Amino acid sequence: MAAGPQADYVGIMTEDPSRVPPPLPSYDPQRPAPPLTPDPAADPALRAAALKHLEAVKAFRIHLTVYLAVMALLVAIWLITGAGYFWPVWPAMGWGLGLGLHRASMSWDREPTEAQIAEQARRLAQRRDQDRPRAIED
């Protein structure tokens, strides 16, 4: 038998067949590799939350588009009627406030964190304990 690493490997192969290294995975270019992480879109809860957010963004964009179109119309009316006192500023500010609140409300719908849920549960337990009638002590 030859000496060296090859001889050691052959010796291992013949002495203990359970120590044979596993075969290497074969490469098949027709079969894509499995993803390293699962696709978040496959989770129904995440998919529903994403869809809800995208619908909210779409509704805000529609609201913004209508706002800009109406404000352009009001400025055009102001220009046609003589361009005196700039009165379109008042509807722009009022509706702009509503538009800003619409945008802000998109971040108010966030799911509560575990810390927020635990804090609320502690508050409810404390309130429940305060509302219980006390036993009469003799």
UniProtKB/TrEMBL annotation:
Q: Where is the 2TM domain?
A: 50-112
Provide the residue span(s) of the region labelled Disordered. 1-42
**Keyword hit for Transmembrane helix:** yes
The record's section on InterPro entries has: 2TM_dom (IPR025698)
Q: What is this protein called?
A: 2TM domain-containing protein
Q: Name one Pfam family in it.
A: 2TM
Q: Which residue intervals are annotated with compositional bias (Pro residues) in the record? A: 19-38
The reply on keyword Repeat is: no
Chain ranges passing through the membrane: 64-87
Q: Which UniProt keywords apply?
A: Membrane, Transmembrane, Transmembrane helix
Q: Which organism is it from?
A: Ornithinimicrobium tianjinense
